Amino acid sequence: PAGAPEPLPTNTQESTSSFSIEDFQPRVTASSLGSLPDSRKRTRSGDAFTPSESTGRATTREVWRLIDSLKTIIHHQTTLIESTEAELQEVKHDQNVLRDQNENLHEEVRALRTQIEILPQAAPTRSWATVAASGGVRPPQLTHQRPDKDQNCVRISTQRLLVDPTDNHNGDRNTFGRYLPTDSANTHIRMALLSAPSTQYAEVAGIGTTKTGYVIRFKNPTSAEAARNNTDWLNELGNSTKLVKPRFGVVVHRTPTEDFDLQNASQQAIEKIMDEDELTERGFRIEEVAWLKKKDKELGKFASLGIWFDSAEGAEWLLVNGLLVGQ
């Protein structure tokens, strides 16, 4: 009927006049034919062709280069992760050490706090006016307590033998002197202690050699005290053997040198100091005085004077009260 739409053509409805023979022929232009030999080149092997210009596709060499680059990046990242883990472990270790130190410090603080709480209350601070009204501050008392190991020791000095004590042929084994063999000195000292009634029960622990004699260590302070207070056993040893008593020195700076002639009359200088400072009445005794200077240096108007007492109490008294000279 008129006005009806025409049906779409199908393969069976198309006529042969729709296509021509030329449509199925390959179309090759002169320009493409001219550029074909130059667009491809043979490789060295001669078996394959590679495009001389980029065609937008990745080659095998580029793929391998990319893979190597990724491997390098992965290795670097792995190394960085491992080093970071090691640093984290070290940080954790340091944190544990600091934690332990903090715990120890807390324990010490608690112990100190406990000790402070036990201590008696300190006296209230006085004003300067109060101190001046009371006549000054009492100097602190100094105390020197002999260590326990020294309480059991007694030192003696003796003269040097005229012959070598190690010479068995010429040496006299019955003579006491310096640098004897330990067993020989031990025998002499023990026999001397046994020969005196006041020291026959003294117990000797051991004997050592010094530059001027020997040091004797007793087993208890009682034995050492008996050997110090009773010197009869020293006479049995002979050879001018005597006790070596500890001395306590004090240095007095800027002492007038014109009041003392220590080179020719040192004993008179000691008596002068003992008399002017009333040391005898206090039970103190000075054993030696000397100028503290170099041998090649001339003695000036003032110098440092060394004073050695036989007791710590004498040295303490002079430190607190000072030295009176020419008064």
UniProtKB/TrEMBL annotation:
Composition-biased stretches (Polar residues): 9-20
Keyword Coiled coil applies: yes
Domain of life (superkingdom): Eukaryota
Keywords, comma-separated and alphabetical: Coiled coil
Keyword Coiled coil: yes
Region (Disordered): 1-57
Coiled coil segments of this chain: 81-115
Protein name: Pc13g01300 protein
Highest classification ranks of the organism: Eukaryota, Fungi, Dikarya, Ascomycota, Pezizomycotina
